[in-house]
Fold:
Amino acid sequence: MAIDLSSFPYLVPQDETGRCYDGYLMIGKNEFRVKLTVPLSNLSETEIICEWKLQEIIDEYMPIIRQRLVHCKDLNTFLKEVISIVESKIKYEESPDVTCNLTSHIVSEIEKIGWHKLVAIDTSFHSVTLKSLDSQQREHLLNIKLNSQCINAAPVTTTYLPCKSLFHWNKEDGLVNLFNEFESTLKNYEEFWDEMEEIDTCTWVLEPEKPTYAAVHRRIAIGTNASVQITVDPKQPKVFPECVFLGADQIINPLKENLNQNLYRWDISRHLLVNLETVLDIKFPSPTNSKKEDFSVECGICYCYRLEQFTPDIVCDDKRCGQPFHRICLYEWLRTLPSTRQSFNTIYGECPFCNKSITVKMPLS
Structure:
């Protein structure tokens, strides 16, 4: 928590704890008298007392300064960011330019949006992250990268939405209009997120391991070495999704038959998870009655469950074996054996564990 005095040589510790400092901050060619009192626990409650000119600047940018305190790891980093903010302000007063105009413009825009919606802003004021909560209090982030040369130029936006969204840039309303469009767009996907959240909570999702709000796929555990991967339409989340079954034939073939026989029972007025269990005539394993380790079986070749972003998705069809493999592992294993045959993009060989026939398609590069 103590200040690095080599970086701030004009600040003098006032006690042995390193919590009180008095002295000067060099900002550009200016010296400002300051007194800092740092609390024991919460850095964001640091008290700054300084001469009136510096105090005016700090008061103007206080919301940003407080936000910086929350995200800074130590007081040294924070002081450097305060210096950067003050330097920008002084530079603007001496000779207004594009960068300083941008700083004042961004501060004004954020004030209209609300400081409580600001998550992060870099010291150059070129990158801003804002947050919005949907009706279920899920937090969604909007990252905005501004053009440093032109205030009115359309910024680059990044967010986690299930469909690509283009936000219209209005130079008169600027960030305010952009953020309002973002919040309006979030409402279009709330039902989708509700359905996916129920699946994430009530089943064992094998992939993605940490789904984002943009993810439309879920690979759900059905049993040991068996799963179903669904792809949900974010605009119509209760419509029957695309389903791909992964596992041994003796497990997934009955599920495919159930699906074909029961598809007429799909009711879009019901939740996605309820419909899936109805048409498959199963009850998905859940955190209330099982452990994820029961379904996260290691690959029989590399002895890992997760290989980069991949999990085992090829399973030996022999009931007495049922060993899972990563597609790439099995492919590389089989292609080294002289007994292996290949037809187009499919390799035919023997299971490394039981020597029964097994096939694998060439992994996509």
User: Anything to note?
Assistant: Residues 103-187 form a domain with the Ubiquitin Conjugating Enzyme fold (CATH 3.10.110.10).
